[in-house]
Amino acid sequence: MATVKGDVHDIGKNIVAVVLGCNNYKVFDIGVMCSCEKILQKAKEYNVDVIGLSGLITPSLDEMVTVAKELAKAGYKQPLLIGGATTSKMHTAVKIAPNFFNAEHPVIHVLDASRSVTVVSSLLNQNKTDFVDDLEEEYDEMREDYYAGLEDRNFLTFGEAKKEKKVIDFDAVPPAPVPNKLGITVIDSVNLADVVPYIDWVRFSFSIDTVQFLPFILLSLSSFIFICCSNIESILSNLGVTRSLSESWIPKDFR
Ligand code: B12
Q1: Which of 27, 94, 120, 237 has a C-alpha 20 to 30 A away from that of 49?
Q2: What CATH number should be reported for the domain holding residue 38?
Q3: Do 129 and 225 fall into the same domain?
Q4: Nearest CA to ligand 1 atom 48
Q5: Best residue among 7, 9, 35, 67 to mutate for probing ligand 1, ranked by most atoms within 8 Å of CB
Q6: Structurally, how many domains does the chain consist of?
Q7: What's the 85 CA to ligand 1 centre distance in angstroms?
Q8: Distance from residue 11's CA to the centre of ligand 1 (Å)
Q9: 9 is catalytic
């Protein structure tokens, strides 16, 4: 596991290493700013089953392409995992995978640490072939969509684009209406019931521990919303949300 050359971000990589470690995988974390040569050399030295690259800045995306090319050139056979906030499934499918992906050593974008365990176990168990076939199909489709999208694009020349510029007649546009009240309005007493209609219950359930909501979700969405609305006080307090809505949330300095 390595953060690629030029990139110092290691929080995500460390989490992945811990999560895999907790699931009995031995992880060799070779740190940040790892040159391509170091990654290849350490993978060989440790005789690893899977190589993981992390990157969070845009240049890391190109660096990952370089690593994939070098792995292919040197004949490495290990699957390559790609992760980190700037990476994406589309970039992996379009730019990285074509340089290294094959049935034996796929290139896989892994969105977050929790998925790394299922991905690694799928790569190391007998169902690897099915897993890789599905992945190949998915990445092929993504590449097709991506290149089809490029064909549809009709670019204008710079001169043509300039002619299309939006002309705003500021005299014709009416001035913005004056707000009813200028300055900061402090709302320091809000009834919980007034807030409930504005809660997005689906988002809410995903942002907290969804497991306890599973029975609700298994019901129809409308019953789920009804149950949540009618039990809001107890749900929030079960979740440890004890903050009173009568508190002012605006710091004194800003009032
Ligand atoms: C913390 C941070 C820093 C810290 C890093 C500390 C550290 N020890 O890592 C410091 C302050 C050092 C830093 C520096 C810089 N940063 Co910074 N940083 C962040 C920040 C706020 C959070 C990153 C983070 O840790 N996220 C949390 C982790 C858990 O998420 P994650 O890495 O994505 O990991 C998860 C998954 O992606 C996945 N995963 C990650 N890696 C891997 C690997 C594998 C194999 C697998 C399977 C999965 C996987 O699992 C993880 C857990 O689920 C982000 C902004 C943001 N909100 O994301 C900017 C951000 C990444 N930084 C940014 C920038 C620009 C920089 C600097 C260049 C700033 C500067 N001008 O100096 C420098 C980078 C210098 C360099 N050469 O690398 C930009 C990058 C923009 C871009 N696209 O290029 C961001 C997006 C901020 C922004 N919006 O501008 N940064």
Answers
A1: 94
A2: 3.40.50.280
A3: no
A4: 83
A5: 9
A6: 2
A7: 7
A8: 8
A9: yes
Do 216 and 114 share a domain, yes or no? Answer: no
In this structure, of 150-154, 172-176, 239-243, the range with the lowest mean pLDDT score is 239-243
Q: Is 12 in the pocket of ligand 1 (CB under 6 A)?
A: yes
Residue 64 phi, psi (nearest 5): -65, -35
Lowest mean pLDDT among 7-11, 106-110, 120-124, 147-151: 147-151
For the Cβ of 8 lying below 6 angstroms from any atom of ligand 1, the answer is yes
Q: Is residue 184 part of a domain?
A: no
Catalytic residue list contains 234 = no
User: Whole-prediction pTM value?
Assistant: 0.74
Query: Mind listing the pLDDT tens digit for each residue in 170-209?
Result: 788 777 888 888 888 888 777 777 787 888 877 776 665 5
Ligand 1 centroid, distance to 239 Cα (angstroms): 29
Q: Is 25 exposed, middle or buried (0-12, 13-18, 19+ CB in 10 A)?
A: middle
pLDDT band at 221 (very low <50, low <70, confident <90, very high): low
Could you list the residue range(s) of the whole structural domain that residue 101 is in? 2-150
Looking at residue 31, its pLDDT comes to 97
